[in-house]
Structures are given as structure tokens and as C-alpha cells.
Write a structure and sequence with these properties.
Rossmann fold, binds iron/sulfur cluster, 18 helices, alpha/beta
């Protein structure tokens, strides 16, 4: 199977319309010089906050090296660093990078996998910024977490910044007060998706809230409803809506909070009647999926099983046969009888890797356009070689450090999630 990178290189020559932006083929360094941006890919049109970290240039020897040279240099650095190094690769990361990973998984699986390598001094996270922060929060103090390209953020995580959420919270406290009901229910419990900054994990930790993943969102919402009359859910409106709807919460009790408007663009009564207040955030990768793609898959492949990620819009989740986390999707594919056909609504790198791992099935991405996650794509083997060779010289580049007081509060919210299970 060809990698996403080589597919994009080929499509650049053949059919520019076949990808969301063929500039991906130029290499991420072309976008690391100017103002912060997500670069080409699914998040290209999302507004990039001015505070987004910039990467800056790396030496030409890494930008200009051939794939073969970079592979040889990365393997040599890995060999030299031995057990002092662990490389983590997210499911959505490109194959050219994932092939060097010691563990491949979702963000939380990877942070936990790193904990099994106590001897590792360096955790190189081939994912995005919030994932490296979570790994830093959960890892031992002596371990250093490194993000090979600092510009690898997450457009969804950036849609909820700390000051906007603080302001929202103040407005909600003014409206609800902070008295508990006679049954002991707080007016509102903040719940954040794992895909957010460490500062927001700390915010929910400080305010009696909890973190969720796409695997445990139902359990976490149940936990929150045992303690509060309603939930403020951020940053992903779709995961919040899809999960709460499946639990029986009516749509009219799930108003959206637009941080640019007073009361989030709602009237006070709507907020008083609400059960789940949804932040105005989304993942631009999963927002690309639509019901027309599902209709076409069903016509082209009768009997196809459509499985989508719960970050997809509600109508897509409703039209699919199943929805679940990356781990759920992997397990569904692994458990299916040979000869099954799957149309999968999640990031194309993961779908293509599943297709290669399970050749007994026919597996394809629901979105026919090759459009990877812009920010995952910013990690290139050139950056990996750059940070690893620096480690060999004893130099730590691109370390991600969460301030101890932030990490302590974030840890409270993560520990609540772990205690809530499954
Ligand atoms: S796939 Fe979506 S949520 Fe995941 S890192 Fe990319 S933009 Fe963020």
C-alpha cells in the first residue's frame, strides 16, 4: 500500500482536485516560516489563534534529505538512544512516521503506553500538542516529552481557549448561582473532551468537572449528571450532542454556546431549561463526512457496514450503522468475518492502515477526497530525525512542559475520569 505522502505526491501530478490541497506535498516546513497556521489539509479554513505555537525553520539537511536518508538517520538515532527513548504514533499520523513508533494508538492509550516504559527518559510524541501535554501530565517528572513540530496543534482544541471558557463560566454562575439543589446537584458540571489544552483540563479539575474520551463519553456524562443538573461540554459539540442524544437528552435541551455572543447567543430561559450546553467547536476532519457519502456507499456496496467516529455531525452518526472511537472502529474491523466491506468515517491515514492490516476485508474511507488532518500532517520524518539526532547529542528540542500547578489540577480531572470507568 502506498503511504498518504506518496499518494498526495502522485495526486499533485495527476489531479489537483483529488486532494483538499496539493500544497501538502511541499512538506510542512513551507508553512512553518510565516504567521501561525494549520496549513493545508482538513483544518486549512479554520481560524488559527495568534497564540498558536510556531515551529520556525529546521536545518536544510533535514528538509532536503531523501526518504531513505531520513529513515537511516532515524533508525540510527533510535538504536543509539535505545531504552532511553520511546516514540509514540497516533492512529492519524502518516505511515512515514508511524513506522518508527514503539506504540500506535489514540491519545490516551499512548499516554498510558508511555507509562509502561519507566526507563524511557525521552517520550517523543508523534501526534499533536494537547496529546504531548497529556503525556507530560501523566509521565514521571524525570521524563521529557517532545513534540517534533511545535506547529502540530489541533484546530478543535484551539476552538475553546481558557479565557473564553472562564468568561462563559462566569456568565453561567451569574445566571444559575452556585447553590446546590436539596439533592446535592450542582447547577452545572464542566466536562471537557481529551482534545483540549492542559489549561482547560485544569479548569474542569478546579470546578468539580471531568475529562472524557470518545470511548467513555457516556460513562462520563452519567457521572456528571449524578452530580449536576446540567453539563457544560467542550470543545466538540458533535461528541457532546451525539452522546447526550443517545442517552435520551432532547435536542432542544442542548443549546450551543457561541463564545462571541452574550450568554453564548442564548436567552436566559433556554439556558435555565438546558441539560447539556454545547461549546461551538468541531473537528474539521470529521466534519467533512456527510450523509450523501453514506448513501453512495450503500448503493455502490450493498451490505457495506458504515462506521463513523462520534466527532462526525449528528445526521452522519444517525445514518451510519455504528459510531465509536478509533479503538471501537479497530475492534469492529478485527472481529468481522473475512470478506466484510466497511466504509469508515474517520481520518484517512487510519482508514488506509486498517485496509492494509486487514486485506481479507474491503475497507475504504467514506470521504473519497484525500484530506488528512492538517496538524498531524505537520509531523514529517525530517522533524523526527531533527529532534532524535539532537537527543543523541544531549540536546532536548521542542520539549512540552505543563506548569506543575496546571498539571496538578488537570490530573484531578483525569483521575476522576479513570475512576468513573469504563
Ligand atoms: S483529527 Fe481533528 S480533533 Fe484530531 S487532531 Fe486533527 S483536527 Fe484535532
Amino acid at each position: 500500500m502506498s503511504s498518504i505522502n506518496s499518494t498526495i505526491q502522485r495526486l499533485t501530478l495527476i489531479s489537483p482536485e483529488s486532494t483538499c490541497n496539493t500544497d501538502l506535498a511541499k512538506g510542512p516546513w513551507a508553512f512553518d516560516k510565516g504567521a501561525p497556521s494549520y496549513g493545508p489539509g482538513a483544518s486549512e479554513a479554520d481560524a488559527t489563534p495568534a497564540s498558536t505555537p510556531k515551529q520556525g525553520d529546521i536545518p536544510a539537511e533535514y528538509r532536503e534529505a531523501s526518504d531513505e536518508e531520513l529513515t537511516a538517520r532515524i533508525l540510527a538515532a533510535k538504536e543509539t538512544l535505545g531504552e532511553r527513548l520511546v516514540i509514540l504514533g497516533h492512529f492519524y499520523q502518516r505511515d512515514e512516521v508511524v513506522k518508527f513508533a514503539d506504540f500506535v494508538g489514540d491519545s490516551f492509550q499512548l499516554a498510558n503506553a508511555a507509562l509502561t516504559r519507566e526507563e524511557a527518559e525521552y517520550i517523543v510524541f508523534c501526534g499533536v500538542h494537547f496529546m504531548a501535554e497529556t503525556a507530560d501530565i501523566l509521565s514521571a517528572d524525570r521524563q521529557k516529552v517532545i513534540l517534533p513540530n511545535l506547529a502540530a496543534g489541533c484546530s478543535m482544541a484551539d476552538m475553546a481557549d481558557e479565557s473564553s471558557v472562564e468568561e462563559c463560566w462566569e456568565q453561567l454562575m451569574d445566571l444559575y448561582g452556585n447553590e446546590k439543589t436539596p439533592e446535592g446537584l450542582a447547577p452545572v458540571i464542566p466536562v471537557t473532551y481529551m482534545n483540549c489544552s492542559a489549561a482547560l483540563k485544569a479548569f474542569v479539575g478546579k470546578h468539580g468537572g471531568i475529562v472524557c474520551t470518545s470511548s467513555n463519553a457516556t460513562t462520563v456524562l452519567e457521572w456528571a449528571f449524578e452530580r449536576g443538573q446540567r453539563v457544560l461540554f467542550f470543545p466538540d459539540q458533535h461528541l457532546g450532542r451525539n452522546t447526550a442524544k443517545a442517552m435520551g437528552v432532547p435536542l432542544e435541551q442542548m443549546p450551543m454556546w457561541n463564545p462571541n455572543k452574550p450568554l453564548g447567543g442564548n436567552d436566559a430561559q433556554t439556558l435555565l431549561d438546558s441539560r447539556v450546553i454545547l461549546w461551538h467547536g468541531f473537528c474539521s476532519v470529521h466534519r467533512r463526512f456527510n450523509t450523501k457519502q453514506i448513501d453512495k456507499a450503500r448503493i455502490d456496496f450493498p451490505g457495506v457496514q458504515v462506521i463513523v467516529h462520534p466527532e462526525c455531525p449528528m445526521e452522519v452518526v444517525d445514518a451510519a450503522d455504528a459510531a465509536g472511537s478509533t479503538d471501537y472502529i479497530r475492534k469492529a474491523v478485527a472481529a468481522a468475518p473475512a470478506g466484510s466491506t466497511f466504509a469508515i468515517g474517520t481520518e484517512v491515514n487510519m482508514v488506509n492502515r486498517l485496509a492494509a492490516e486487514y486485506p481479507q476485508h474491503h475497507i475504504f474511507c467514506l470521504d473519497p477526497v484525500i484530506c488528512p488532518c492538517s496538524t498531524m500532517y505537520r509531523i514529517h520524518p525530517g522533524y523526527l530525525a531533527w529532534v532524535l539526532e539532537a537527543l543523541v547529542r544531549g540536546e532536548v528540542l521542542n520539549q512540552i512542559v505543563v506548569a506543575p500547578e496546571v498539571a496538578a489540577d488537570a490530573r484531578v480531572a483525569l483521575d476522576r475520569m479513570l475512576a468513573a470507568r469504563p
